[in-house]
Amino acid sequence: MTRILTVAAAQLGPIQRDENRASAVARMIELMRQAKGHGADLVVYPEAALTAFFPHWWIEDEDEIDSYFESAMPGNETAPLFAEAQRLGIGFHLGYCELAFEEGRKRRFNTAILVDKTGAIVGKYRKIHLPGHPEHRPDAPFQNLEKCYFETGNLGWPVWRTMDANLGMMICNDRRWPESYRSMGLQDVELIVLGYNTPKHNPPAPDHDRLGNFHNQLVMQAGAYQNASWVVGVAKAGLEAGVDQIGGSCIIAPTGEVVAQAVTEGDELVVARCDMDLGKSYKNSTFNFAKHREPEMYRLIVERKGAMGPEGG
User: Fold this and answer.
1) Which of 19, 138, 140, 163 is deepest in the core (most CB within 10 A)?
2) 36-56 pLDDT, tens digit each
3) What CATH number is associated with residue 11?
4) pLDDT in tens, 270-309
């Protein structure tokens, strides 16, 4: 019997600095209701979906930094989203900034959770590939301070069995690294969901700007095809707190084909019926890992972090 999971990519337009969580949650609930009307089983929201993307500016006050983080999930302001999901019988993925108290200290992570149709959290992921820089750059048009405000994720890339499928998560910059996909591919992942906040302008390399949308889609299509998995990427898009961000939220099949894509930079829902068995023919042929992979030949990937040229080169 075919396993169909109807997935809705719930792109958000910008959330400005003065917009509160209640307003953001209300927008997400409206998209969730639309998704239910399309028969969706799962709604995917963006990275850091509850507030403006604060790593784009320099903040010195610790209390102000903490104000962008959630110390409980659900909390008072996010509880309505969980309640509506439970009422509708729909699962969701949510990206947010997590304030944790572990190992006797306060820790900050860029986090995503997977919530099933009963409203229960069944999975958590913390972003591993943090982009940008840890120091303030006053001459830059905007900051990219994830390395300042977040710690590197410490949960790896688990895959969860839920909604009759194998689901995994990554966040934003993780999508640019093949290790992210392959770590889950080796766990027979069938659907990878992710959110992103991606500026149109790249200050360290402005010549890349014209390729921003192309690169965004390229890496997700490659990851989907090479691991025979569905990939759903969802943006927070548009002009947010002075930073213009790409849209392009999309649903990509294990074939590498884009089957649904957003056309605006505002709140927008795109939906696709995703056959969780579609990747099997690829996993049993071209990407039969057990038959064709040679892990002993790849040791350099985990033994060396940075690139080094050959001796004498």
Assistant:
1) 163
2) 999 999 999 999 999 999 999
3) 3.60.110.10
4) 999 999 999 999 999 999 999 999 999 999 999 999 999 9
Catalytic one of 36, 47, 70, 268: 47
Asked if 172 is an active-site residue, the reply is yes
Look at the chain and report how many structural domains it folds into.
1
pTM confidence score? 0.98
Q: Are 113 and 121 in contact (CB under 8 A)?
A: yes
Check if 127 is active-site.
yes
Active-site entry in 97, 148, 172, 250: 172
Exposure of 225 in the CB half-sphere (CA atoms within 13 A): 10
Predicted confidence (pLDDT) per residue in 150-196, tens digit: 999 999 999 999 999 999 999 999 999 999 999 999 999 999 999 99
CA distances from 121 to 187, 262, 267 (A): 20, 27, 24
| Pure H helices in the chain | 21-37, 62-66, 79-88, 146-149, 178-185, 212-227, 280-283, 289-292, 299-303
- The domain of 43 spans 4-303
Q: Exactly one of 36, 84, 98, 127 is catalytic; which is it?
A: 127
